[in-house]
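dumping this here before i forget
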Amino acid sequence: MNDLVRAVTPLTRGIIWLRSAPLKSTDETYRSVDYLLDGLLTSSLNENAPAGLLIGKNFNRNFYVLRTGADFSSAEVKNFLSLIEKEFKGEDRLLIVDEDQSAGKLMQAIPKNLHSRFQSFT
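structure:
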């Protein structure tokens, strides 16, 4: 088991995955996200699905992954947050996997009242 899989706890509601390179099934992050989504990432790629939102289950709750890069729009992030915000409870968190060095830009797109809910993973 790698570090990303270990970083996901019952309090983790999802991941925002900032990528700069095309997806490769041999990448460690790819394998981790695919594992956390029970193969949904690979399945979506086999169906030529565009980058974006994937929803799976983890710890018997919905688990959301937003795949994007430095060219993300504020609207894309706000739509993602509005989808998951209603499921946030107590200490729930989101992980930011920043392979694109865009976390600073991402945090500017996130309402300040949600900043404490984000945890950076590198």
